[in-house]
Every structure is written in C-alpha cells, then in structure tokens.
Specification:
The protein is an alpha/beta fold. The protein contains 10 helices and 14 strands. The structure holds NADP nicotinamide-adenine-dinucleotide phosphate. The site of NADP nicotinamide-adenine-dinucleotide phosphate (NAP) has 26 residues, from helix 5 and helix 9.
C-alpha cells in the first residue's frame, strides 16, 4: 500500500473539514454508485478518513443510471478501482453483476460495498455489521431480546438479518405494505430460526401498542421524518415508548428526528442514524485499505457536513 498522503488537510473552519485532493498517478480510487448521488455524505466521511491517515486514496461520487449499472460495475475491474459503495437504487440489482457475495449479503439480498481483488469483485453488506456496531455503542446486546422494526425496505432487511443472526428472541415487522413485511418476516425467520411476524401499519395506534411497549428495542427504518419532511413521524403513540427501551432511528438528517424526540420525552434511550452510517462506512474503509478506520474524524465529518436544506433523499 502506498502511504503517501494524497489528501492534504488545508483548513478547518467552524467544524467543517475541507480537504484538498492531491491526485497523482499513484492515487487509489474508491467511490459510490447511486442515482441520484448529489446528496451523499460518504465522500466527506471517507476523504476525511484518508486525509487523517495520510492515505493516497480519493473517494468520488458516480451517478450511475439503473440501465448503466452492469457497465459501471465492469468498469470497477477495468479501471482498477479499489472498490465502491453502492446505494439507492442499486443495492439489490447489483448482486447479479458480481463474482461473489458474502453469506450475510446473500441473506440480506443487498450489497452496499464492493471490493476489487485482482479483477474479482466481491459484494459485502456493511449496513448489517454497521447496525450491530452502533448497538454496541449503545451497550445493547440483542441476545434473548424482543425487537420491533418499522419498515420492510432495504434498511429493514439489513437490520432484520443483523438482529436475526444475533440470537434475538423475537422480531415484529410493521410496514405500510403488509406483503413486504410478511415476506421479510418469513425470510428472516426461515434463515435464522428467530420468531418473526408481520403487523399492518394501521395497527400501530391499536393492537400493536402493547407489542411496541414490550419490545426491548424499536428500530425506525422507514424514510419518514427525513429532511425535508422533518415534521413527519411514524404514528407510534407516545405511551408505546417506555423507560429501559432503546429506540433507534436510521434517519440521519435530521438527527435527532421527531420520532426520537418523542421517544426521549417518554423516557426511552435513543440513538440516531449517524452511528450506523459511521460504522457501515468504517467497515467499508477497512475492507478497502486494511487499516483501522479513524472513527472520530469520520463522525466529525458526518456531523459537520453542510447538508441541511439540500438533502431530500440521502441514501
Ligand atoms: P426503501 O428500501 O425505499 O424502504 C423505505 C421504507 O419506508 C419502506 O418500508 C416503505 O414502506 C417505508 N415508507 C416510506 N414512506 C412511507 C410513508 N409515507 N408511510 C409509511 N411507510 C413509508 O429505503 P431504505 O433503503 O430502506 O432506507 C430507508 C431509510 O433508512 C432512509 O431514510 C435511509 O436514509 C435510511 N438508511 C440509513 C442508514 C444508516 O446508515 N443510518 C442505512 C440505510 C438506510 P413500503 O414498503 O410500504 O413502501
């Protein structure tokens, strides 16, 4: 590995780290494939990390339309990129373009990180590992516990698989489209043996209140409450939260969300989506560089990136 500093830290103003790329013929390239991609925070996080460790790497955003995905993935090997992150809308469709995927990524059915080893492309899902690391930060051990997951999209798949593989006792998925929740509950239950059920979204304020209240952990994985619709909140009644419960919202802009503020007011412990975002990025960083990720520098870059007002669909 070439340790020559490729990013020069030029200034730090009002908490915003500004990096100046110093690109040479030796610079290693990583990046992110998504569509749209203008709102991603990952370049800020990873370029700050490369600068902190003096690594001659640059992280770039690539706007890849769905019909161009296969060509773009072939380009990872053709252009000798170290690897890429993959985000909305490609996380599931990219699996068929890769040489191999890890067991966890196969179970989840989604890849968010690709590593290029001598032209052979391996797909990983660091969302699941990132979620579990974030739970460690909150000193929460899923073993033997009960979970409620709001949502059944890509993020819910990663969270469901992560909890399912961590000896959780029971998972209840609550989703607007009940069929997706049923499908996910069956998949997680079948793959991990964990008791998994699906509940209609409309029951959130009715029969599901007692289920949510008895849960040890409630994970909000829908995009409700994400900027610019920060005034929106899943319809969980305040009395469904309680002391001793951990409530996590994967939305990271804003952080905290109205959902988390409601949970805090009811006495629950909470964690915002920045912790998972940080840890999924750190896991990708370590796969690409073989170096421990500089977590505090990466978190600082995430929490100070100037996103408010221009982020509508951060992946
Ligand atoms: P996705 O696959 O598109 O799934 C979206 C989910 O939100 C589905 O369950 C959808 O329900 C539900 N939903 C959306 N609008 C809704 C509404 N108005 N009412 C009720 N349900 C609604 O998206 P995703 O990839 O799972 O991402 C979801 C959120 O997680 C995003 O905010 C994303 O930024 C965040 N995320 C954070 C991290 C992190 O590291 N912190 C990682 C991944 C994702 P239906 O099934 O009915 O459509």
């Amino acid at each position: 590995m070439d340790n020559r500093a490729g990013l020069e830290l030029v200034t730090q103003t009002e908490g915003n780290t500004v990096v100046k790329p110093d690109i040479t013929g030796r610079t290693r390239l990583v990046g992110i494939f998504g569509h749209p991609i203008t709102h991603t925070l990952s370049p800020a996080m990873h370029n700050a990390a490369f600068a902190a460790l003096g690594l001659d790497f640059v992280y770039l955003p690539f706007d890849v339309r769905p019909e161009a995905l296969a060509d773009a993935v072939a380009g990872i090997a053709a252009l000798s990129l170290v690897g890429v992150n993959v985000t909305v809308p490609h996380k599931e469709t990219v699996l068929s373009c890769l040489d191999t995927v890890t067991e966890a990524a196969g179970l989840i059915g989604a890849v968010n990180t690709i590593v290029n080893r001598d032209g052979r492309l391996t797909g990983y899902n660091t969302d699941a590992a990132g979620f579990l690391k974030a739970l460690e930060d909150a000193a929460f051990d899923p073993a033997g516990k009960e979970a409620v997951i709001l949502g059944a999209g890509g993020a819910a798949k990663a969270v469901g698989a992560a909890l399912g593989m961590s000896s959780i006792r029971r998972i209840t998925f609550i989703n607007r489209t009940l069929g997706r929740a049923k499908e996910l509950a069956a998949k997680v239950g079948g793959a991990t043996g964990v008791s998994s059920t699906a509940v209609p979204w409309e029951e959130m304020e009715k029969s599901a209140v007692s289920v949510i209240r008895s849960a040890d952990i409630v994970v909000q994985t829908t995009s409700i409450g994400m900027h610019p619709r920060a005034s929106e909140c899943p319809p969980v009644p305040a009395d469904a939260f309680r002391q001793g419960q951990l409530v996590v919202d994967l939305v990271y802009n804003p952080a905290p969300t109205l959902f988390l503020k409601t949970a805090v007011a009811a006495g629950a412990r909470t964690q915002d989506g920045v912790r998972m975002l940080l840890h999924q990025g750190a896991a990708a960083f370590e796969l690409w560089t073989g170096r421990p990720a500089p977590l505090s520098m990466m978190e600082s870059a995430l929490r100070t990136a100037p996103v408010a007002g221009r982020v509508s669909d951060i992946p």
